Amino acid sequence: MDAQTQRRCLLITPARNEAEFARRTLDSVVAQSLRPAKWVIVDDGSTDETPAILAEYAARHPWIEVVSRTDRGERSVGPGVIEAFYAGLERCDLDDFDYICKLDLDLDLPPGYFEGLVAKMEADRRLGTCSGKAWYEDAEGRGRFMELIGDEMSVGASKFFRVSCFRQIGGFARQVMWDGIDCHRCRMLGWKVCSFRDESLAFLHLRPMGSSHRGILHGRARHGRGQYLMGSSPFYLFASAAYRLASPPYVVGGLATLWGYLAASATRPHRTVDREFRRFLRRYQWLALRIGKRAAAERIEAEMADRFDSGRSPSRESAAVAACAGAA
Fold this sequence. Notes:
Blueprint: E1 9-15, H1 22-30, E2 38-44, H2 50-60, E3 64-69, H3 79-89, E4 99-103, E5 107-108, H4 113-123, E6 127-131, E7 134-137, E8 144-146, E9 158-162, H5 163-168, H6 178-188, E10 192-195, E11 203-205, H7 216-230, H8 234-244, H9 252-267, H10 275-291, H11 293-303, H12 319-326
Parallel strand pairs: 1-2, 1-4, 2-3, 6-10, 7-11
Antiparallel strand pairs: 4-9, 5-11, 6-9, 7-8
């Protein structure tokens, strides 16, 4: 057995009312060529058949553990999802694993997904987090579309991290846009971030990104609000919203993103990220507007290479996001 197949992967899945999709995700993980060493699924107060389905699979596969939480009344994306993630992580010792993945329970993964991601990580020791690309089927039957996540980000539905990198950035922030903050924190510490366009790593998102709570338009508005909380430049947000006008849901999706950002700008909710992070983020965004996201990310990753240290303990730069991760 080679070194790659000996790598130990930990999956943690926050889940609530996923009975419609759970079996497809469970079956696709069970069928993986590189099976996870442990999979902790946190049932976050489901009121449908999700608990029964999870119990069935846990009884058949000893490497699956189910953690049950009380019903909070409704799905809570952003901080609620990450709270559930940490409820699962509390049951594990990260020292026992090489890789950790936050995995949603509404995905259909190709059989070589985790083996492929590990191979990418093993080939580049600076690669801190990565994923494949997420696709979804249009509700009106017009075909499949790739979700609008740039190559310079890892997809939130399948966040695959090197454990040492995950520790250095202080884990996930418990707020909307946690899945953007982590990528930028990685680059601040000299790590690389990527989502690969390889066909062998493409996975199906059974429910389009942002549609799990009150529908997709509410999700787009939430994304705009999250961009404000993360500290995004208004010029960058306007360009991003304009770009989304041409993607489903056409026109209104982009407008909802813009509305979410403007509404947050008017009420000015508290931002948990620090000034250093916001400066770093806005420099990346200005570069992205000038030369494109991928080229901007590559330039910054080259500039930050001297800060990379794969073995160091969590550092001063990660203190703020660690505080975010611990905030309610």
